[in-house]
Amino acid sequence: MHFQILTPERSAFDGEVESISAPGEQGGFEILKDHAPILSSLVPGPVKLVSGGKPIFFHVAHGFLEFSHNKGVILTDAVEKPGEIDAERARIAKEKAQKALENREKVDVIGSQKALMRALSRERFQQKFPG
Q1: Higher pLDDT, 34 or 131
Q2: What is the rounded end-to-end Cα distance, in angstroms, of the chain?
Q3: Taking the complete model, does pTM exceed 0.85, yes or no?
């Protein structure tokens, strides 16, 4: 299966894989060869690709996954590999989002909730895959 992970700035992955595991909005899921066509929105979290029998991990922000005819793509705002996440920056982003949510009348609540979700997910990913 051919798979890509793309952001507006770069291609993070472009190659052959045996499987894809992704954090869907309705829960995590896995795609194997000959999977039915699927379009899913993604939440921040880990993506696991198996290529050449070896797992490759990425952290994605919000985005979409499309898969059809053994070709797939993730389109996301941001993607990071293990070791690319700055733990201090993730902590600061989490604190900023938490403070914004405490001030609900002066802030974009949905945007702050998404920012907090991403910051927490990046923290967990960095702890699990320090690089």
Answers
A1: 34
A2: 26
A3: no
